[in-house]
Amino acid sequence: MIRPRVLLPVALGTNRDQDLADAFTAAGADPECVPMSALRSGDRRLSDYQILGIPGGFSYGDALGAGRLLGLDLTGWFSDQLRAAQDSGMPMIGICNGFQALVRAGLLPGESDAVLTVNASSQFECRWVTIAPNVASNSVWLSELTEPIRCPVAHGEGRFVTSDLAGLQRRNGVALTYSNADGLAGERYPANPNGSEGDVAGVTDPTGLILGLMPHPENHIRARQDVQRGRLTGGQALDLFRGAVNAVNS
Amino acid sequence: MTSEVALLIGPGVVHGPDSELVANAAGFGVGLDTITELAIVHLRGVLTQESLQLIAERLLVDPVIGWCRDAAIPTSDGPTSDGSTNDGPTSDVGGTITIETGLRPGVTDRQGAELMRAARSLNIDLTAATIGRRWIVTLAESLDPTQIDVLAHRVLHNEVIERFAVGPLAPGFVADEGAPPPTQQILIGEADEDDLERLSQARRLGLNLAEMQAVQDYFFHAGRPATDGELEMIAQTWSEHCAHKTFRAAIEVRDANGQVVDQIDGLLKSCLRAATEAIDAPWVHSAFVDNAGLVAFDDTFDIALKAETHNHPSALEPFGGANTGVGGVVRDIIGVSAKPIAITDILCFGPADLDPHQLPAGVLHPRRVRDGVIAGVGDYGNKIGVPNVGGAIVYDDAYTTTPLVFAGCVGLLPTGSHRTDPQPGDAIVVIGGAVGRDGVGGATFSSQTMQAETADIAGSSVQIGDPIVEKGLIDVVLEARDGGLYTAITDCGAGGLSSSVGEMGAVIGAWVDLQLVPRKYAGLAPWEVWLSEAQERMVLAAADPQPLLDLAARWGVDAAVIGRFTDDKRIVVVNGNEPVIDLDCTFLHDGCPRLELVANVPDTARPERTPVTMSHKDALLALLAHPTIASKEAVVRTYDHEIMGAMVTRPFGGPEGDGAGDGAAMIPPGTSGENAMAIGIGVNAVIGTIDAAAMAWTVVDEAVRNAVLAGVDPHQLSLLDNFAWGNPNDPATLGQLVAACQACRDAALAFGAPFVSGKDSLYNVFVGPDGVPDPVAPTLVITAVGIARKPDNVPLIGAVEPGNEVWLVGPATGSLGGSHLDQIAGYDHGGEVPGFDAGAVARHHEVAAAIDSALVVSGHDLAEGGLAVAAAEWAFAGRRGLQLVCDDNEATLFGEGSARYLLEVRPDDAERFAATVPSAARIGTVTTGSEVAIGSLHVSLEAVQQAWIQPARKRRADTQHTEVATR
């Protein structure tokens, strides 16, 4: 089996690139963290890769709003490469700041306006959450994921607001939702850590190729990383990354 | 044509009646209903309607919820911070008042800079941009001008870095300052003693007469005047902050009769370093000589250790001070070629509920200090992407005027990969941010006492951090290290280039042209460029700088060659053709006269104890609510402790994630996974004032205890010391410091744990308007770091399995002198304080052996509040009941002491456990119940939760008070 190449673009302030690289490596891919300057100069091109992963962090200091300036990169000088990659069916994922950038760039959710704004608690939140996959999702990213994932969130601007939540839910664009023991978190803190409407933790574009989510599945790949080590088993997120890696390979 | 435009951006944030901001205002007697916080964007450039619309849509306004409009408001004639007055009608129509705040010109403004960069990418050229805030205050009562001033000064803005106006505030664009002032010549050779002292004060050099005379001597023999740059560089190099004069001083110790009982040849040499040399630990690869200590992690990697203080800046500008405190200690780790992998923070504040009327002039309210410091610590760590793995927050009256901020960092590097040997001819390369007037004189400022008016005159001594630039430094330095692109490296912190280049070139010499140093704006005097503590910079020596410059460009980090290392043993600095500094290295680094100080042996006699008259249950619940003991989860949740996915045990855990952990352990990314790095921290606010030696023993023990519960191997521990003390020229204060240092030495020897690095912060004294000095409580923070060889055996947080046994390690009773029980009872009840315990080391080793053999399911150490508090916290963390059999006296329930643990053991393992830990006694069991029973003291987990999770912080989490403001 070939290890698909994964491009992880690194802007000034991106900081979970190594974590995401670790997850893709564990899932059988070959990730590379590439500084934005190397993409701008053409030293590296998106077409050299089979998967795009936009990592978390505080790109450009999150000046002017989380992910805004990275989103501007995506819609600006990078847009031709992105469009070509979309046309070729490349799986893409944006996590936390990467999700914020994909939303700012209009790539997610795709058909309606949306924003990830200041958490309802008005502060940065780092805590473990449970996110449940939408079984009806068409996304390659969810193709091998059957169980809820336990993983941390770490963000100050993660409250998802969209002009058409019902439409997004109808097309099963809501891929991942904050959950508790009873199912949906019901928008209750802290199971829903940011107050997102409809407990939205992650969304896909209509094709299912692009997934964006606020929580950090890349930080729960191995049982050893589990905050519930010794008390619970399972809940790892490796299958999320395997879904895309295997889709590229098949 | 160039024009200026101000745009108001919504929706912003509404701080409701329950918010901290409104509560803060109420604390100052300003009754408000709500405060709406909006961004106000000032732009200058050739602006058309189209370009403004593009900027608004693409760069400023959020879809779905956002809006933007012209920011013009009716002006008011209220007070302004820059002395100007506004013309026009008042704005407080309909019960509202509008206040605007913005950064002072020249303060680091990441938002403004990014806005200009982003506008350029839209082909719009802005000549200036800055983002401030508009506060629309809805009044609950009418306010007089004094109250409005209090609201602006005490609640909404910090004059050290910001300006404000009631009504519109003109943008703080940097004015074109024109040509910089030239280097000044200062005639010092003929000055008399008064002149010398006046000169030291006028320039805030912080040098005493003997030191000034040594300076005079040097220039007399050189036969020329000094330059301002030379005086500033000498003052910086000889500052307490950089030279640790007190810790190197000759000290005469006298007893109560004035008899000399001891002569100390430097505390650093005779105590801390002496212990390290005596232990001669094979795992210590570098101690005391570099930015951070280096110790072995495994066969492949070393870990780098450092802890710093940042007290003075944090007292003035809590966010910026704490922010750059973290940034500084992280740079110390980068400065030994290591990858930062963990941050710690230990914070000491005055009481958050302090009556504002008791606050001395010139002091920020503890609440404001706390909120700012915590936000500053979180902001830097979160943005730089290094997990904050642990710490402590201590509240005590002693810290109201001098809050303490300790920040630590651990790094990882391949063994032997750090290079420290600059060669003559090597280029001097600076990477990172440009130089501004930020932090000029910080090293000398932080070595002096604070006064009521310090905030006014030391404004430029406080720096503002830019963590994403430092994240870039990490990427560049690690790749440069692996590529062998430099021969030496150090961080550029206190003292700026003067300190970093001065130290790197101390043996060989260096030549620098200041015109090659990147600047944020013109107008800086040459010495200001040399001394500026502009943050996020590293200095490297490279035979061939080009690959380094290319690498920095690749990562988007600025870099410049500013000079070269030489072989003439002189520091020579020019500004183009203008000579600025020419100093002999030997004089600079060895010319400072040694301090001779006097210390008095402390009187530690204690009155007999009188019992506390409180029911045990009331006492336990009050202890759980003591701000030092109460849950810090609300704070910890604002720190990213999960990045790197490396944690084995965390600050909080248990089935609900709200149980307090002890030490922290992590498996550093990139290592084999066999070993974890374990870290424990000790601090005590009370005992130091009573008996500084006892405090030292106590906090070393606490740090070790916490590390043991994080799985550490106690045979391979390393320690960091951080002293925060008062004025060492006071013999009583110095006597306490001597006692603490000697106890540190004895404890290090007893534990076989060498000190590898540390930092002292002295002169933590506040002199109020009344002229009475108010020194900080002598405070020592110890950080213990080592290796957890079986990460999977690290005990869990919170009791786990009903039916398991509970064992108490150590004496059944503890000491009550200086205990937290006395604090909640309101006064010192006398009695012995905890301190040296001859059995402590053995007990730690026994517990570590039991953990190594997987015999400990979960555990918690006995710390503040003793057995009762430990049991309550542990039971709540695990959502289990406890049934403990023991005596019902104060010393059993609430006594504090060394090397005491509560451990959970499976019944099947009990026999092996008892053999491994002979100092343990079985005192009870874990139950399915929802009650903690300790002898006749019964408390429900619900009562524990209510007491321990503080109402004020809990409310913030439970009720989401933030709404979206509507237009």
Q: What is the radius of gyration of chain B?
A: 28 Å
* Quaternary status: heterodimer
Order of helices and strands of chain A: EHEHEHHEHEEEEHEEEEH
**Name of the CATH class of chain A:** Alpha Beta
Key attributes of the depicted protein:
heterodimer, A: 250 residues, alpha/beta, Rossmann fold, 10-stranded mixed β-sheet, two-stranded antiparallel ribbon, globular, B: 967 residues, alpha+beta, 7-stranded mixed β-sheet, 32 helices, 26% strand
Please describe what this structure looks like.
The complex is a heterodimer of chains A (250) and B (967). By secondary structure, chain A is of the alpha/beta class. Chain A has a single domain, classed as 3-Layer(aba) Sandwich (Rossmann fold). Helix content of chain A is 23%, strand content 25%. Chain A is built from seven helices and twelve strands. In chain A, the strands form two sheets. In chain A, strands 1, 2, 3, 4, 6, 7, 9, 10, 11 and 12 form a ten-stranded mixed β-sheet that branches. In chain A, strand 11 (200-204) and strand 12 (210-213) form a beta hairpin. In chain A, helix 3 (68-75) packs across helix 5 (97-104). Chain B has 967 residues and is α+β, with helices and mostly antiparallel strands. In chain B, strand 23 (570-575) and strand 24 form a beta hairpin. Chain B is globular and about 80 Å long. The chains are: A alpha/beta (250), B alpha+beta (967). Chains A and B meet through helix 1, helix 2, helix 3, strand 5 and strand 6 of A and helix 2, helix 3, helix 13, helix 16 and helix 32 of B.
Topology:
The complex is a heterodimer of chains A (250) and B (967).
Chain A: E1 5-10, H1 17-26, E2 30-35, H2 36-40, E3 51-54, H3 68-75, H4 79-87, E4 92-95, H5 97-104, E5 114-117, E6 125-133, E7 149-155, E8 159-162, H6 165-170, E9 174-180, E10 183-184, E11 200-204, E12 210-213, H7 238-249
Parallel strand pairs in A: 1-2, 1-3, 3-4, 4-12
Antiparallel strand pairs in A: 5-8, 6-7, 6-9, 9-10, 9-11, 11-12
Helix pairs in contact in A: 3-5
Chain B: E1 2-15, H1 20-27, E2 32-46, H2 49-60, E3 67-70, E4 96-103, H3 110-121, E5 126-139, H4 145-156, E6 162-166, E7 185-186, H5 193-202, H6 209-222, E8 226-227, H7 228-237, H8 240-243, H9 245-248, E9 250-254, E10 260-265, H10 267-279, E11 284-286, E12 293-296, E13 301-309, H11 311-316, H12 318-334, E14 339-349, H13 366-384, E15 388-395, E16 404-414, E17 427-432, H14 442-445, E18 450-451, H15 454-457, H16 467-482, E19 488-491, H17 496-504, E20 510-513, H18 526-531, E21 537-542, H19 546-554, E22 559-565, E23 570-575, E24 578-584, H20 585-590, E25 596-600, H21 616-625, H22 633-636, E26 647-649, E27 652-653, E28 659-660, E29 664-666, E30 676-682, H23 687-690, H24 692-709, E31 718-724, H25 731-751, E32 755-761, E33 765-767, E34 773-775, E35 779-788, E36 805-809, H26 820-825, H27 840-852, E37 858-861, H28 866-878, E38 881-884, H29 890-894, E39 901-905, H30 910-916, E40 920-927, E41 931-934, E42 937-940, H31 941-948, H32 951-958
Parallel strand pairs in B: 9-25, 14-15, 18-33, 20-23, 31-32, 38-41
Antiparallel strand pairs in B: 1-2, 1-3, 2-5, 4-5, 4-6, 7-8, 9-10, 11-12, 12-13, 13-16, 14-16, 17-21, 17-22, 19-21, 20-22, 23-24, 26-29, 27-28, 29-30, 30-35, 31-35, 33-34, 36-39, 36-40, 37-39, 38-40, 41-42
